[in-house]
Amino acid sequence: MNHQQIEKDIEHLEHVLPRIATADRPLPLSYWRDRVDGLSGAARVPSQINRVKRLNEALRALEARLK
Questions:
Q1: Separation of alpha carbons 11 and 52, rounded Å
Q2: Is the pLDDT of residue 61 over 70?
Q3: With 90 as the cut, is the pLDDT of residue 23 above it?
Q4: Residue from 38, 31, 40, 39 nearest 63 by CA
């Protein structure tokens, strides 16, 4: 995955994850977990790595609330 695609994916997830916390979800959390996990291995730039970590933490909190 190239730098620009990683950036677009991170931006999309930063936009979507806060909304799925309060909305009816047509896609299961496992789908979002796969997306975040995929970025975890692809991000190479420190700022992207930190943003993916924040996404991971937000998703982990959402998963914990739903258990």
A1: 10
A2: yes
A3: no
A4: 31
